[in-house]
């Protein structure tokens, strides 16, 4: 009986979403991309940017750590390429920070596009002044340990979403959306269509041409809120 090869805990080489797809996706809000992806891929709102002006797009480097230990984040930074986004499954633990100003400065020097942590960070004001896109579940002044092994570039669960290495990750003031690498290209024309539709809708509202959505009565009827022939 053959046995499947066991993957190492640290996977150095991954297939990334193409740079041209990242560049195109960066033009769209995270909300638009989440909508066209079937209203999927949006991380829990508890994972938020340290400043609402922060935004990014890039391929995912996935990290799994034990709560309160950041050894594997340092490992991720050691293999990250410019433009990568480091996503950390920190188990939602807020008892100690996994990153702070020093590591954020290192990320900027390395060209890392952003870090998204399901856990805590510290030195929030310094990171905001640096302008590095840091998304976290909270803050804590206590520092981490650096000796517990974890995994790098394996599938992770973060903010209720499964992320595979190389997936497309887009973040802005609303939060973070993840789209599977193989589906990312197909989402771009859908995003363009949705932006055009929403632009027309807003124009119709401003001009008072259409102050209610055209689908409202049909949806209310289907839900049993109104009867056939009724309207609001």
Number of helical stretches of at least 4 residues: 7
Order of helices and strands: HHEEHEHEHEEEEEEHH
Q: What structural category arises from helix and sheet content?
A: alpha/beta
What is the alpha-carbon Rg in Å?
21 Å
Number of strands: 10
End-to-end Cα distance: 67 Å
Question: What ranges have pLDDT less than 50 throughout 5 or more consecutive residues?
Answer: none
Query: What is the general shape?
Result: elongated
Portion in helices: 25-40%
Provide the residue-averaged pLDDT: 96
Main β sheet profile: 8 strands, mixed
Strand content: 25-35%
Description:
With about 230 residues, the protein is an alpha/beta fold. The chain contains 7 helices and 10 strands. The chain has helices at about 20-25, 30-35, 70-80, 100-110, 125-130, 185-205, 215-220, and strands spanning about 50, 55-65, 85-100, 115-120, 135-140, 150, 155-160, 160-165, 170, 175-180. Strands 1, 2, 3, 4, 5, 6, 9 and 10 form an 8-stranded mixed sheet that branches. α2 crosses α6 (about 185-205). It is elongated, with a radius of gyration of 21 Å.
């Amino acid at each position: 009986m053959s046995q499947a090869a066991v993957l190492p805990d640290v996977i150095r080489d991954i297939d990334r979403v193409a740079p041209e797809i990242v560049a195109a996706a960066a033009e769209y809000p995270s909300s638009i991309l989440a909508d066209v992806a079937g209203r999927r891929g949006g991380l829990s709102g508890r994972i938020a940017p340290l400043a609402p002006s922060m935004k990014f797009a890039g391929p995912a480097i996935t990290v799994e750590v034990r709560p309160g230990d950041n050894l594997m984040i340092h490992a991720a930074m050691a293999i990250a390429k410019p433009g990568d986004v480091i996503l950390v499954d920190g188990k939602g633990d807020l008892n100690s920070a996994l990153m702070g100003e020093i590591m954020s400065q290192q990320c900027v020097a390395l060209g890392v596009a952003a870090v998204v942590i399901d856990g805590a960070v510290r030195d929030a004001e310094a990171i905001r002044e640096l302008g590095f896109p840091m998304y976290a579940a909270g803050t804590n002044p206590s520092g981490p340990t650096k000796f517990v092994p974890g995994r790098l570039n394996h599938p992770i669960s973060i903010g209720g979403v499964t992320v595979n290495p190389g997936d497309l990750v887009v973040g802005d003031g609303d939060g973070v959306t993840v789209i599977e690498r193989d589906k990312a290209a197909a989402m771009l024309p859908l995003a363009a269509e949705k932006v055009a539709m929403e632009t027309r809708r807003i124009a119709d509202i401003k001009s008072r041409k259409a102050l209610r959505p055209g689908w409202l009565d049909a949806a209310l009827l289907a839900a049993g809120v109104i009867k056939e022939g009724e309207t609001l």
